[in-house]
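Quick one, T. Sequence first:
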Amino acid sequence: MDFQSVLDTIAQDALSMQDKGQVATYIPELAKIDIGKFGICLIDNKNDIFSAGDTDEGFSIQSISKVLILAKAFQLIGDDLWKRVNVEPSGDPFNHLSLLEQENGVPRNPLINAGAIVVCDVLVSKLKNPKKDFLQFVRDVAGDHTINYDTSVAQSEKRTGFKNFAAAYMIKSYKNLENEVNEVLDLYFSICSLALSCRQLVHVFYLFMNHGKCLQNKNHLTVNQVKRINAIMLTCGFYDEAGEFAFEVGLPGKSGVGGGIVAVLPNKYCVATWSPGLNKKGNSKLGMLALEQLTTKTGLSIF
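Structure tokens:
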């Protein structure tokens, strides 16, 4: 498969698009990002890397990090995690609160904000230094110790994340949060601020297409854990647009309001895109189109 030619065509088409969506303005730091940025990077099962566009520029991965905290929590407490968070699609935007009250403080899945807050609570309980230890986990998986938090983004989110505070206090009222809200949200805002490039993202998510083994051939997850996480990405990774992504693209994946999307085809490849302009559902407009083109042009999806 000539992945490079496919990516070059996709990047050319994306950069020629007039409507690139709208950057997320409710997080002030994200509103500053150049909407003209676009990158796409793919690593295959032979560890060959193909890229086009702005693939080495770091950006705030936002909700993509929810997959990584899920992986770490699953590694720490196993199936006990599912006693505190469900695995069903929400059908709602990522920050809606209505289901929390209906379902007694148990979030619908770990990839919406409320679910990720519960997962962060697990990490606060189980790790000695949650922010440092989680960052080390990501660095180890990627084999890249330059990865770091963007503290300006984290502070920007902390100043404006009122719905996340509301969700956390509601979860706390149902006794599904063991630690103090401020401590849990401090970790949550930090993990959302993680800054990675498309190239770094495919290195991190390589283990989700490679049975839990990272590029250094070290096991970080079991085959069963990867199967479960990939299933959640397929059904819940794009909030109330998850069905559309499965229909158009056909890969397990995860988006973030920083404009990033990462997706995997088990045993074949991992791909990441970045374009900061979002569609009305909060997913990267050009990223969604690019990944639809990728699976259509190559004929390679889980379907």
